[in-house]
## 1
Amino acid sequence: MSDSLLLEQARMLCQDKGVRFTTVREQVFSLLADSNGSMGAYDLLTQLQKTDAKAKPPTIYRALDFLLEHGFVHKVESQNAYVLCNHFAEHHKAQLLICDSCGDVQEMNSSAISKALLTAAKQRDFKIVEPTIEAHGLCKKCQQN
Ligand SMILES: [Zn+2]
Ligand SMILES: [Zn+2]
């Protein structure tokens, strides 16, 4: 899907939910849509400051909180970075395959894995707050190099 189509879809989703897709939120969304891999908050801030010189770290973190809350992005804890979700309309639980060589992040959306994790945690009386699973390794491209 092209970036402008993604943005249009995100705008419509926000309208449906009755939440505001502010300029900053749109800009951060677009930066992540343009990026090939994940981006850290400071990379995002540097990019944002090119169009909005007044942007400060809280500007970015507030926008990211919004995007996370509504399922537009996934946080990659082990990289301390963010990726745009490929199918954000579903607001799903993700499994991330992270390449340690090039930093590429592929997301999976397996309900079987999510369910298995939930069941196993429940048996241990554990309440999961953040269900994202991150697996590290080498992507297809990097295995060939
Ligand atoms: Zn996703
Ligand atoms: Zn790679």
Note: Residues 3 and 33 are 6 Å apart (CA to CA).
## 2
Amino acid sequence: MTDDQLFECARQARERAYAPYSGFFVGAALLTMTGEVFSGCNIENASYGLSQCAERVALGNAIAHGSRQFQTLALCLQGDGSPCGACRQALNEFAPELTVLIGGPNGNIRQRLCLNELLPNAFGPQNLKTSSLPEPRNH
Ligand SMILES: [Zn+2]
């Protein structure tokens, strides 16, 4: 799958976004290491804090279908923007080396980044290895 094809999946996902409050529509498409694509769109809620980002919806969609290894995320949004901090952290859990393509609804990819540029010195699973956990105390 080409970057443009993946980006088209994100552009189509953006058309399904539910964003009646912000009017900020976002689509995401996550390409797995085996070539599958899982998409997501942002889903807002009248209780604003419950709103979900497109990136994490795509990630949850992929995880729920059994995929955990990813190579590229395409993100389609209007204007300038990149994944929020929470999404950077969520994506880092599974793919610290993820390629992130960002572009607008016109279909043009304007940025190509690596997740480790967006989230340097990330906290991740490696920080919670069991060998680094304190030994239980014996009484
Ligand atoms: Zn986000």
Note: The CA atoms of residues 81 and 102 lie 8 Å apart.
